[in-house]
Design a protein that fits this description.
With about 120 residues, this protein is mainly alpha-helical. The chain has 5 helices and 3 strands, in the order ααββαβαα.
Length: about 120
């Protein structure tokens, strides 16, 4: 039993080290404020990353003074053990999680898409 536990620990640690981490690539996360008036989807390979989301959200907050909390609407999947290092150290995973269903019911159907809404 000890050998199995040690093997599992080794696999988890090795899968979170840079060479293997670079192979699986980053997660693409979805973000929104509570009302859904700001939404952003990451496409890391296309340059739409967390830093761009923060820049856009800061610009959004300068125009809209209400509803200025950003939420991560992509849940953390604990079974993706190769991402545990990111889950613990990356700022984008430190954002509070909010269910998209909860936001979408508040926003309603998207009729007139603004520049601040990716979806």
């Amino acid at each position: 039993m000890k050998k199995v536990i040690i093997l599992i620990i080794i696999v988890v640690v090795l899968s979170n080290l840079p060479p293997l981490k670079w192979i699986v690539g980053p997660d693409d996360i979805l973000y929104s404020n509570a009302s859904g008036s700001f939404t952003f989807n990451e496409l890391n390979y296309a340059g739409r990353n967390y830093q761009l989301c923060i820049v856009n959200f800061e610009a959004f907050k300068s125009v809209h003074k209400e509803d200025t909390l950003l939420f991560r609407i992509t849940p953390i999947n604990i079974f993706k053990f190769w991402r545990w290092n990111e889950y613990l150290t990356n700022d984008k995973y430190k954002l509070h999680y909010k269910s998209w269903k909860e936001i979408e019911t508040k926003r309603g159907p998207l009729v007139n898409k603004t520049n601040w809404q990716a979806f």
